[in-house]
Specification:
Helices cover 16% and strands 31% of the residues. It is α+β, with helices and mostly antiparallel strands. It starts with 34 loop residues before the first helix and ends in a 5-residue tail after the last helix.
Length: 320
């Protein structure tokens, strides 16, 4: 190996060092260098859409609204693209279609919720909310009140259809497709628990096809305080009170969105703003009664496809 280091230290020996190698100029920046930044931005956009729920992602890129409604049902406005996948967006879009129902009967007064399905005031609710009622009054989200007539009931499905008197121009909810619901889907519940109109809660669908047994007729349970009702059976046990002798069993969506007495008949909604179920029952410890009863993260809703299949029968005065 050649020794280029200076050994004698003489001033005229400096020529023993080789000239330093020339440095190559730095390459000019290329436009392709920006691609990783663009890629990161694209990933962030997709992640934001996924965070809003799989249904929001499918609806945005496939153009699938999944309303699944019938021709006889007026549909409302879906959640805007800018608010899609957010609880606030769903609440803003659907709250005007959710009402509070006050039913008076010989057994006392009960409070529940309902979902507007036509602009002239057809409202779906639970049969146990209006069963045996002599008068039915409805309050809209804007505070306006109406009297309502019962068009038809189906105690076997715990469904009822009422219609407001002299109503027009109402905002109807969009009915979705409960057949497309999956465990883990995000949902929003809107109703009037404890008479608190327009209360919004959120959670996920925690199970499908739960067999839930409820009383057919609310008048079997004389009461003055609506918090003492909403009895149902599950797994051979009774919850929230005695269901009485006349009961019915149906397949329900299970959710951990908080439901309480007064949510009966309200809406369970997907993140596209479509109603996928009618809230109908909640689990509460069997030892809890009256004002101590409350949601512990197990609520049940009648699938909206069951409701749509029953609408013609309800309009004719009875269910299918």
């Amino acid at each position: 190996m050649t020794d280029y280091f200076h050994r004698s230290g003489a001033p005229d020996d400096t020529h023993a060092y080789p000239p330093p190698p020339p440095y190559a100029p730095a390459p000019a920046p290329r436009a392709k260098a920006k691609r990783p930044v663009a890629l990161i931005a694209a990933v962030a956009i997709v992640a934001a859409a996924v965070g809003g729920g799989a249904s929001a992602l499918v609806g945005e890129f496939a153009g699938d609204t999944g309303t699944g409604g019938t021709g006889s049902v007026a549909t409302g406005t879906n959640v805007s693209q800018s608010s899609r996948g957010t609880v606030a967006g769903v609440a803003q879009a659907v709250s005007p279609s959710i009402v509070e129902i006050s039913a008076t009967s010989d057994a006392g007064r009960s409070t529940g919720s309902g979902v507007i399905i036509t602009s002239d005031g057809e409202i779906v609710t639970n049969n146990h909310v209006i069963s045996g009622a002599s008068t039915v009054k409805v309050q809209l989200s804007d505070g306006k009140t109406y009297e309502a007539d019962v068009l038809g009931t189906d105690p076997d499905k715990d469904l009822a259809l009422i219609k407001l008197q002299d109503a027009a121009g109402l905002k109807a909810a969009t009915l979705g497709d409960s057949g497309k619901v999956n465990v883990g889907d995000e949902v929003v519940a809107i109703g009037s628990p404890e008479g608190l109109t327009g209360t919004v809660t959120s959670g996920i669908v925690s199970a499908l096809d739960r067999d839930v047994t409820v009383a057919k007729d609310e008048e079997q349970q004389p009461r003055q305080d609506p918090r003492e009702g909403w009895p149902f059976e599950f797994g051979g046990q009774q919850f929230n009170g005695d269901t009485g002798e006349s009961t019915t069993t149906y397949k329900a969506l299970q959710t951990d969105a908080s439901l309480n007495p007064g949510n009966s008949g309200g809406a369970l909604i997907n993140m596209n703003g479509e109603v996928i179920g009618i809230n109908s029952a909640m689990y509460s410890p069997s030892s809890a009664t009256g004002s101590t009863a409350g949601s512990v993260g197990l609520g049940f809703a009648i699938p909206i496809n069951t409701v749509k299949a029953d609408l013609d029968g309800l309009r004719s005065g009875s269910g299918n």
